[in-house]
Design brief:
mainly beta, 128 residues
C-alpha cells in the first residue's frame, strides 16, 4: 500500500527567473536553456494552479494556468508558457504560484549557452 500525505503549501514564490537566449540552439529540446517549476500534488484530487510573473520595469504577466493531476507531478517549463503571452527571453522575472490545494514547488534552470551545461535547482519559498 502506498502511503499518502498531504504536503506543501497553496502559495509559492520563485524570486529568481531568467531564460537566456541560446547562442547555439540545440536540436535536442531537453538540452535547450530553460526554467521550470516542478509541481508535486500528493492530494487525492487534481490541483488547479496559476502562475503570475513579475518584472522590474513592466506590469505582471498572467495568470498562466496548469492542472496537476491527483498524486502526480508536473514539470512545467516556462519556455512553453504562451497564454496569455510567451515568457520573455533575456529578461529577469519572479514568479508567484498559487494553488487551490497544497502542493510542493521546486525551481530548476538549465543554462545551455556553454558546452559545459549549468543546472541549478532549489525548493521555492512557501508563502503560507
Amino acid at each position: 500500500m502506498i502511503a499518502t500525505h498531504t504536503v506543501g503549501s497553496r502559495c509559492w514564490a520563485i524570486a529568481e527567473g531568467y531564460i537566456p537566449i541560446d547562442e547555439k540552439p540545440n536540436d535536442d529540446p531537453r538540452l535547450m536553456s530553460h526554467e521550470s517549476a516542478c509541481l508535486l500534488n500528493t492530494n487525492d484530487r487534481e490541483a488547479q494552479v496559476t502562475l503570475t510573473l513579475y518584472f522590474k520595469d513592466r506590469e505582471p504577466a498572467g495568470p498562466y494556468r496548469a492542472t496537476v493531476p491527483a498524486r502526480r507531478t508536473l514539470h512545467l517549463r516556462f519556455n512553453d508558457l504562451s497564454d496569455p503571452e510567451p515568457v520573455p527571453r533575456d529578461t529577469d522575472y519572479a514568479t508567484l504560484i498559487e494553488s487551490d490545494l497544497p502542493i510542493v514547488v521546486q525551481h530548476t534552470r538549465l543554462d545551455a549557452r556553454q558546452e559545459a551545461l549549468a543546472l541549478i535547482s532549489t525548493i521555492a519559498y512557501a508563502g503560507d
